[in-house]
Amino acid sequence: MARQRERAGWLFVAPNLAAVGVFLLFPLGFSLYLSFHAWDLFSAPRFVGLANYRRLFAADPLFLIALRNTAAFTVLTLVPTVVIGLGVAAVLNRKLMGIGIFRTIAFLPLVASTVAMAVVWRFIFTSDDGLLNIVFGWVGIDPLPWLIDPDWALVSLSIVTVWKSVPFATVILLAAMQGVPETLYEAAKIDGAGGLRRFWSITVPLIRGPLSFVFVITIISSVQAFDQAYALTGGNGGPETGTYLLGIMLFQNAFSFYEVGYAAALAWVIFAILLVVTLVQLRFARREEIEL
Amino acid sequence: MRAPACAPATEIGVAVRGSRVQRAILRRTLRGTLGYVALVGIAWCALAPILWALSGSLKRDGEITDPTLLPAQPQWSNYREIFDLLPLGRMLLNTTVYALCVTAGQVFFCALAGYAFARLRFRGRDALFLAYLGTLMVPLTVTVIPQFLIMRAFGWVDTPWAMIVPGLFGSAFGTYMMRQFFRTLPAELEEAAIIDGCTTWQVFWRVLLPHTRPALMVLAVLTWIGVWNDFLWPLVMIQRNEIATATLGLVRLQGQYHTQWPILMAATMVLLAPLLVIYAIAQKSFVSGIAQSGMGGR
Fold first, then answer.
1. How far is residue B138 from each of residues A27, A28, A66, B237, measured CA to CA in Å?
2. Contacts of A114 (CB under 8 A, 6+ apart)
3. Which of A29-38, A137-146, B43-52 has the lowest mean pLDDT?
4. Among A51, B205, B206, B259, which has the minimal tally of Cβ within 10 Å of its Cβ?
5. The whole model's pTM is what?
């Protein structure tokens, strides 16, 4: 019986293991291998050592632009996502009649395709007659060059991303908030703490783990952002280099210029950045175990 | 509180208490109202872009600039037109087939492996599981190039296999999720079945699997949404329109008809609508899935 179960164990895991091995573990190692080679997909790969990495950091001005854009984009999405997510979760956490319906609607963007929503937002951002500039006109604000000016294009991209990522932050934070024991609030109420005070002194410290998790997930998806940039401002990261993100650079090098080794090196740099972020987060969250 | 000796004490007491109660009620109503104002604001922010797209999809080209939510005369023909411009119906069907295959495969193989990791002892299990956990941290961007090369080596680029096979045998994430769920099931279920002489397969298939329906549902919904909304993978893999996915169709449509907003909005609605319907039905398991796993989408 025990032997049968041992054999069954391997048998049950085998198909899954094969898939994870072929489509995840092997590619991971292979991409590291590629990053030390020059390869155009057609001739044989040529070993070039660290040349790809050197080129990234020393010789390619576009890498610095992509890095800077991605950093700015990450800040522009991270801060609003966390702040708004926290506020929305606090509002959705209240016990009001019909709250279920409001939660359902508030989480709706979770299922909306990023690409489809980027197209919708492009429509909203249209300069002359887009919804946003029309509404701005009503309150006397001059129309903004949303997708025309490089700096504004990055802001537009961030708005789309924030719209898409706030509900995710909210789901995590709301679930965490609902785990905070009610008695703590009651005790604080008796001590005369107001609503805002209770929020800062009880809710926020007690959901620190999930909060830092939201931080990291938001950073990870911002650093890797691709879909929304491609659908909103096109595959070249325009206007000019306004939305030229690391994700766009990777795609361009790999699938437009066929510089596979160079793109693999870039992928590993992105991976390294994310690894550092994750490790920093783990240090912060160590005291508070996050439920994964 | 001490009432002045000359005044009838009870009356003052009642008056004070009365106004205090009134004030409390007033404050509560005010806070309730503020809460609803905030809730409506949040709901509006979530819905507005989708509603605006819906409204735009039914407008005439010249009317699209009017900031009215309701189109003067709903142009249902916009929806017919997108199907004329692109084989969008075909693309929707493709996406559905891909999503069905991958979801069925994920649910089955992740449950199978999750059960093995949770309940069966075999050599190397724990080390293997640790490796699985490690891969969860690997971002898609790192692996997409070699994955493309593997697909090319298999000769699957620009074929449906590229869309189906990589997800068909399950993922590390799904296995992890199913393992967590299997561990919550009581051991007695299994023991009784083993004493009754069930094989390991029967224990899994007949006894334990029916109890994992909530988790299977969550995994199915997350997988379906992942495949339906996926963009980078089909963009890299698929050229031909006949086997393209709907997201790909939308982006190609945008490239060709980038100023025909009613057409584009109709296409986005066609892409969004099926998921919105699924969300409306399976909303609970979806939200709980994200909250539990904390790793929505891909």
1. 11, 8, 21, 21
2. A164, A227, A228, A231, B229, B231
3. A137-146
4. B259
5. 0.89
